[in-house]
Design goal:
mainly beta; Tachylectin-2, Chain A; Jelly Rolls; 8-stranded mixed sheet; 2 helices; about 0% helix
Length: about 700
């Protein structure tokens, strides 16, 4: 180990465009623990939370409650160890408790020998608890359905194998029967498993759910009713729910989510167009709290960062669990009150990816790109570093023992120290973004000497069996200077632009970009977002030397930026993100209106004092002492005559990314909105944000007093 990890946070950081910043310069909340200021934390520390729950990829979530504890399982595909399991007491603050499989060693392709399982592997787990036993069911493409069981959530996990079932879900019914639903198209078969879960019951009646549902099933029995939740496949798609009095049906089907993007764009956010439909919430499970609340942890795509999960409230309406709040069903707030679980804890980030390799084990959030060769990596050969011995590979995409992490959004800066003294001829070692196409910066050992290169390559294709496609041959960008044996490598990922910049340094302080910016994408070859990876492979057809990696750090410059601020007690201006008009008080008509600035001047009636009502809720007080108030779908001005603001004057302050803010009324759970390019009355009718923030419901704020 060289530099201690904490000190690394305060080194200058080279961002896109060459600007230098310090991690210490980002906005921080003095009321939050240090880790929650440095790493994305959903908990706002004021009784509310903001989505995404994790600002990094977590796929196909399934959640259960066992007493006062919540457990969450997610897809890991080709990565090892497999199926990450999270634990929480409040549904907002989570921690990793482990994985149900150390390795998916199910054949040569799982080890990157003669093929690969990129984009396949283990999908859509179903986690259940029954009679003192935890179960995780997960289909593995081409290998069948694996059933894991353990008396404790931390394992050890025993497993048995069944014939494969696509995106299945399991229900332990009250009468001892065990049902499994699966499939991606109607009719959806509902089968029975033997009580020991080691076979299907061949003599069970033929059952099926008939109706337009989807895939990614979540099957429950709630208050005597059978409930199946599933998602229409795709990106801008909805989630469906079916209800029946009997497992035999008939089933009634309803739309559970409708066009809710939470402001997530279909293209890179900085390139979003006004007609962008966004990427919708569309796959996740539901869970209750001891207090009787219902919630969903549900997934949506987030561009090259991958698929992420959000926590959203569930309201029961006419017997159906629907996403959202009364008055605005099938939509969801991006910021809301934390669930009433009976448990209180300080905000805590779920994922911290730093690793100085000083302990006996790797950071548990790290995963290998396939099943690793355990003899070819070590934390003990040279204590304090990760030593990767090279194995033969034609390119990075087929290289074994690449150690990966998930990069947090909206920006992350990953840096690692590399010592190349142990490289042998033909070795290539460095820092990569695993995707298709992929990119890396590293050192290549050639007959002419060491060369520092930045390289982009292909090798991927839409997932499927068989060997990888031939790598795309691109000319590498080679540094004009021979690299030192000890150097620092860095990649800065900006997910607002879906762009990454690779750079290097001889001293860990001054970094020099190398190569062109890399365009990051979400694609169907790995079926994941980009993954930073440490690698070492040999192109000479035989094992080579070794590379030593140290002080892997992942800095999140915007973990708590303007996106999380509420200017309580300040006098502010609110301008529409659609047309730049000001929110203003029309004192003559006692109404809120949008007005254009005249000759660049700020209208005096556009200034509002932000009154703190607690739990992230605010009131807007105009200069004449009147308050913004909601009457139906109209926004009016009201004289409270010295009384405290009530629900009609209360708005949940909801921050989206990139400094956009919405104000949600507590009366109808809808949002203040202007009419773009038509100054005039403001309504309280918007159901949610347009992804491009051009619908009139998103505002920018600025403190003026």
């Amino acid at each position: 180990m060289s530099t201690p990890i904490l000190s690394r946070y305060f080194l200058p950081l080279l961002l896109a465009g060459g600007a230098l910043i310090s991690h210490a310069a980002t906005s921080a909340s003095p009321s939050l623990p240090l880790a929650a200021n440095r790493h994305w934390t959903a908990d706002n520390g004021n009784g509310t939370y903001s989505n995404p729950l994790f600002f990094e990829e977590f796929e196909d979530p399934d959640v259960i409650r066992v007493g006062e504890d919540y457990y969450l399982a997610g897809t890991t595909m080709h990565m090892n160890p497999a199926v990450q399991i999270m634990h929480s007491k409040d549904l907002v603050n989570w921690e990793l408790v482990g994985y149900c499989a150390d390795a998916l060693d199910l054949g040569p392709a799982y080890r990157l020998e003669g093929g690969n399982i990129y984009g396949r592997g283990i999908w859509a787990p179903c986690i259940r608890y029954h009679k003192g036993m935890f179960y995780i069911f997960s289909n593995i493409n081409g290998a069948g359905l694996l059933v894991y069981r353990s008396k404790t959530i931390t394992g050890p996990w025993e497993r048995n194998q069944l014939p494969g079932r696509h995106d299945m879900s399991v229900l332990f019914d009250d009468d001892g029967k065990v049902y499994i639903i699966s499939g991606g198209g109607s009719p959806y078969p509902i089968e029975e498993l033997a009580p020991d879960l080691r076979s299907f019951k061949a003599d069970a009646p033929k059952r099926a759910l008939v109706g337009r549902m989807g895939e990614g099933h979540h099957l429950y029995k709630i208050k005597g009713k059978y409930v199946d939740v599933s998602a229409i496949p795709g990106g801008p798609v909805d989630q469906m729910v079916a209800i029946a009095d009997s497992i035999d049906g008939p089933w009634k089907v309803e739309r559970m989510v409708q066009g809710e993007s939470l402001g997530v764009t279909a293209s890179a956010p900085l390139r979003a167009q006004p007609n962008d439909r966004g990427l919708w919430l569309h796959q996740g499970g539901i869970v209750d709290t001891p207090s009787g609340e219902w919630w969903s942890i549900i997934m949506s795509d987030h561009g090259s960062a991958g698929r992420m999960v959000s926590l959203v409230p569930v309201t029961w309406d006419n017997g159906f669990p629907l996403i959202g709040l009364p008055g605005n069903l099938r939509k969801a707030p991006n910021t809301w009150l934390k669930p009433n679980t009976g448990h209180t804890q300080a905000p805590k980030p779920a994922f911290i990816h730093d690793d100085n390799f000083g302990g006996p084990k790797l950071n548990p959030h790290a995963q290998w790109n396939h099943v690793p060769d355990q003899s070819k990596w070590s934390l003990t050969e040279k204590p304090g570093v990760l030593r990767l011995h090279s194995l033969p590979a034609s390119d990075f995409y087929s290289a074994r023992n690449s150690l990966c992490h998930r990069p947090p959004g909206p920006e992350s800066i990953i840096t690692v120290e590399l010592d190349t003294a142990g490289l042998a001829l033909g070795d290539t070692a460095g820092l990569a973004l695993l995707s298709s196409p992929y990119a890396w910066i590293g050192v290549v050992k050639t007959p002419e000497g060491d060369a520092l290169q930045m390289f982009t390559g292909g090798g991927g294709r839409r997932r499927g069996p068989g060997p990888a496609a031939p790598a795309t041959v691109n000319a590498p960008t080679i540094s004009p200077t021979a690299p030192p044996r000890h150097l620092w490598l860095r990649v800065h990922c900006n997910f607002d632009a879906d762009e990454a910049i690779f750079s290097w340094s001889a001293d860990g302080r001054q970094f020099t970009p190398l190569g062109n910016p890399f365009a990051m994408t979400f694609q169907l070859s790995t079926f994941q977002g980009v993954r930073p990876a440490l690698f070492n492979y040999n192109t000479a057809g035989q094992p080579g030397g070794y590379a030593d990696f140290d002080n892997y750090t992942c800095v999140e410059p915007r973990a708590r930026g303007i996106e999380r601020e509420i200017p309580m007690g300040k006098t502010i201006l609110l301008t529409s993100g659609a047309d730049g008009t000001y929110l203003a008080a029309d004192r003559q008509n006692n109404a809120l209106v949008s007005v254009a600035a005249e000759a660049g001047a700020v209208p005096q009636n556009a200034k509002f004092q932000l009154i703190d009502l607690g739990r992230g809720r605010v009131a807007l007080k105009a200069g004449n002492g009147q308050f913004a108030s909601v009457a139906g779908e109209s926004a009016v001005l009201k004289d409270l005559a010295g009384k405290n603001p009530g629900d009609a004057e209360s708005f949940q302050w909801i921050n989206l990314m990139r400094g956009d803010t919405m104000l949600m009324s507590l009366v109808n759970h809808r949002y203040l909105a202007t009419k773009p390019n038509e100054p005039g009355p403001v309504t309280v009718s918007a159901t949610g944000p347009r992804p491009a923030r051009k619908g009139g419901e998103c505002f920018k704020w600025k403190v003026v007093e």
